[in-house]
Every structure is written in C-alpha cells, then in structure tokens.
C-alpha cells in the first residue's frame, strides 16, 4: 500500500501536529491510515490503532497487514481511551467536539499530549480543554475540496485558564503557521453563518437560533 495516496489534507494536517514520540494511540482509527503514516514516516516508533466498532477495526487490520510496518502497529477494540494504557501521544480525529471531550475524561495520568481534530462543536471542545487544564500549543487548518477543517495540539498541565468566545470559535491565529490559510478558514466559517442566516431570513424565521447566528457573525467580523 502507498500510504501517501491515502492521506487526505485533513489527515495530513493531523499528522503534521503529532510530535515525535514512542507510542501514539489513534482513537477512532477507522481505516488505520493515520497510524500507518505516522510509523512509516518515523514520527512515532510504534502505534495503536483503536476503534469502538469491529467493522472499522477489521478494515484497519487489513490495511496494516499490507504495510512494511505491520509489526509496529497494534489494533485494539476500545471505547475511547478505556483500554489504552501507555501512549505518550493520543490522536482523536473526525468526531464531534463534545464526543472528544467525553473521551478525554478517561485520560490516564501518563497521557499528556493530544492532537485533536473536531468535525463540529469546536468551541465546546476548546472550552473543555481550557476548563480542564489542557493547554493548546499549536493549531492548524486544512482545505479539502470545498470544506475546511481545524485541528490542534494540546498538552495536559492541569492548570485551567480563561478563553474568549472568539478564541473558542476560531482558535488563536498566532498558533497557526499558515496565516493565509487561517484567514481563509475564518472567512469560510463566516460564510457558513451568513448562509444559515440567509436561509432563516427566507423562511422569515426568528428566535434564539437567529440571535445566536447574528452574534456569531458579529464575532467573525471583528
């Protein structure tokens, strides 16, 4: 298998945030492409491909077996982090922010480094990290066809901190290397809100949701 052809811009963004480590655990591994790529590129020595469902894990096992690094990747049927013990970096990608936060509740004491890529509820996840002592050190964005994604690298310190509404929604621009792509991401998020507002206006809808969207648009325009 040529793993480079399987790594989408979204997964490449996640991989680029992973620090060099001994053992990475990919939670919700799906096809297993991310741990294969990380071991193949020497970013980590070994990897765990974990999933809560047998189907995706079977797919990951098949893909791992076709690689030259198959002896360095273990597959585990696990509900989040519950059966993971010794990973010195954890990746969780492609899930909602609230689900990722619930998985982090089962963090073991020796787990301090995390790369997280929420598909939605980015603000909920960032607030959880701030309130529970996970310091966001780096952020990244990626463009894949007509969609854009964000991801961040966080370290557990145990020290809670304050986070503004804008930071929760969009992260900190100073933590993103590609400033041009970050600015494009902000405009992408802004257009999403504008589209939703236009749909509500056409339907002559009012209420809390519309007020919430108007507040978001104001924040994105700052």
Structure description:
The chain is an alpha/beta fold. It folds into 2 domains: 3-164, Vaccinia Virus protein VP39 (Rossmann fold, 3-Layer(aba) Sandwich); 178-222. Helix content is 41%, strand content 26%. It has 8 helices and 7 strands. It has helices at residues 9-17, 33-40, 54-65, 97-104, 122-131, 165-170, 179-202, 208-220, and strands at 21-27, 44-51, 73-77, 89-96, 113-120, 134-144, 147-156. A 7-stranded mixed β-sheet has the order 3-2-1-4-5-7-6, with helices on both faces. Helix 4 (97-104) packs parallel to helix 5 and helix 7 (179-202) runs antiparallel to helix 8. The protein is globular, with a radius of gyration of 18 Å.
Concise description?
By secondary structure, the protein is an alpha/beta fold.
* CATH top level label of the largest domain: Alpha Beta
The percent range for helix content is 40-55%
Q: Summarize the main sheet.
A: 7 strands, mixed
Query: Total domains, how many?
Result: 2
Shape annotation: globular
How many strand elements?
7
Q: Compute the separation of the termini in Å.
A: 46 Å
What's the overall average pLDDT, rounded? 93
Helix-strand category: alpha/beta
